[in-house]
Amino acid sequence: MDLMRASQGAPAILACRDVVKTYSLGAERVAALRGITLDIGRGEFVSVMGPSGSGKSTFMNLAGCLDTPTSGEVVLDGERVSDMSRDDLADIRNRKIGFVFQQFNLLGRTSAKDNVALPLLYSGMSKAERSERAEAALAEVGLDDRMNHYPSQLSGGQQQRVAIARALVNAPALVLADEPTGALDTQTGHEIMGLFHSLHQQGITVVVVTHEAEIAAFAEHTLRFRDGQLAEDEGNRRAKAVA
Amino acid sequence: MSTFELFRVAFGALRVNLLRSTLTILGIVIGVAAVITMVTMGAGTQAEVDRQIQSMGSNVFMVRSGSPRRGGPRAAVGSEQRLTEADAAALKREIPEIVAAAPTLRGNGQAVVGNLNWATTIQAINRDYLIARGWQIDEGRDFEPQELRSGAKVALLGATVAEELFGVGSVVGQTIRVKNVPLTVIGTLAPKGQTSMGSDQDNIVMVPLETGRKRLVGRSSSRAGGVDILFVSVEEAWMMDDVAEQMREFFRRRHRVATDAPDSVFIGNMSEWMETRAETQQLFNTLLAAVASVSLIVGGIGIMNIMLVSVTERTREIGLRMAVGAKGRDIMRQFLVEAITLCLAGGLIGIALALAISLAVARLAGWPVLVQWPVVIVAFAFSGAIGVFFGFYPARKAAAKDPIEALRSE
């Protein structure tokens, strides 16, 4: 089905082919991923679910170019990232990936704007351009009036919006959100998911890892991991209904 | 990121833990301050010594009777050969490099003017003395040959005596009494300041040798032309060693000293002695500076320690920066710049502290302040180098972190 979809529509933003990842724990070798093959198309909104140990975190690390697979191929936006060097991966992350974390991971004593501009620091952009793009990204998440606030002066939801603005500021091919609502109350969590949904509608590719079915339901379809394998790839009625 | 921005960001990061940063750089502050203070004070002492040598009269020997030997058998009292006026004249005749050879007698006395009374040194001299010591006459004139011959009751006053007895008024032509001998003041001497021992060279009354011998500082031994000290000056400094040897030979011949007996006179070279003292002082300063640089090293280790703590504390930040695209070298640069900023800040504070201390000490001791700017610059650069050296390991540790592990850390 994945292969079919890849051949049908636009070229996949993320393509995994027989991806295996094993870790060595002492003498033991633990297989975290046992051969994953999947495509995520441009503009899709996908959620990733699975119990702990299912391999979903490993998958996210590979998709986010934080790690390389033991074997198999990962292609992100046309670039084969599965055997890249550390520095090249950093470069890819800088240009093509936007991360959103459960704990927001904003720098303390640093204004919202400077937090958002952080990825641009490493892309060799001029100060003026960094400032302009950070402001635009903050406006996009509805925080244009909180530019110079410090994280400590913002609510959890606002902090996560700043983090989302930071993920968007480099116009990434893929936004990866790891439990983005895990530290938020239900109401705020839903607002954040609403924001992801509207980003998706603007054509941005979004992948959200969650263990809550309710959150996963915001996505168009859900990838379920079990024992290092892709268990199922199901569509969501709600997402379809919204669409 | 521009260099300026790097430093601005580093400064911001360090301000977050202001107290910790301040305590961390204390070692560097103290080290830099100590090194610069020691060097500055060393230069001050040297300048002071140079000035004192200058005031002693350059290229001057002091010749005294008796051997410099300590311990062991000494010649019986009275068997010592006294130096005489004739010795001085003969020296000058036989050793052409000698410019002036001044026989002197020295004693203490009260100088009295009206109801004023001042304890002073009385020095009986001839015309060679002022030449040998490089002493200038401020007002009035030197002794005339016939005053010297006849032992006239005339005197030259040192600046201190003149001021104590006469205040600021004119002194020439006035009369002072020393040991009930009325002396007409014919001139005053230009001030020379203190000796290295702290005695005031300007607290002095000079009289013709003959006058001193007969009336003021005479002793039984001085009747036959005996004197206390010969001041001998030489044309050029490089002749000193040679002339000293010639004089030693001269006196051995003249006093008929047996081949295996010690010298009959002691020939002291004041500037040499003071140079030795200065060298000792310099050595002491160098030693202190070395100890101070140990403080710099210890300070550097402190910086490394705190940077390691900082790297550990900020593991998540490192992970985040890597996730959004920072390469290892970006992280490395960030922490290296922080360490350098710390050290340079310490260096700057240390320099300011050193300047303040040097100024205060120089003022108290009456030395010139001679800030050695090259040393200041080197100390500043060195503190930066300490930042690089001791910041390198923590920075490399930060750069080597795995982004996944780093993001997961608490």
Features:
heterodimer; A: 243 residues; six-stranded mixed β-sheet; globular; disordered N terminus; disordered C terminus; B: 410 residues; six-stranded mixed β-barrel; 13 helices; 18% strand
What does this structure look like?
The complex is a heterodimer of chains A (243) and B (410). With 243 residues, chain A is of the alpha/beta class. Helices cover 37% and strands 28% of the residues of chain A. In chain A, strand 9 and strand 10 (229-235) form a beta hairpin. In chain A, helix 4 runs parallel beside helix 6 and helix 5 crosses helix 6. The radius of gyration of chain A is 18 Å and the shape is globular. The two termini of chain A are 21 Å apart. Chain B is α+β, with helices and mostly antiparallel strands and 410 residues long. Chain B is 56% helix and 18% strand. Chain B has helices spanning 3-16, 18-56, 85-94, 127-133, 145-150, 159-166, 209-216, 240-254, 270-313, 315-323, 328-365, 373-399, 403-408; strands spanning 60-65, 83-84, 98-113, 116-125, 137-140, 154-157, 175-178, 181-189, 204-208, 226-227, 229-234, 265-269. Chain B has a 6-stranded mixed β-barrel, surrounded by 4 helices. The model of chain B has no long low-confidence stretch (mean pLDDT 85). At the A-B interface, helix 3 and helix 4 of A face helix 1, helix 10 and helix 13 of B.
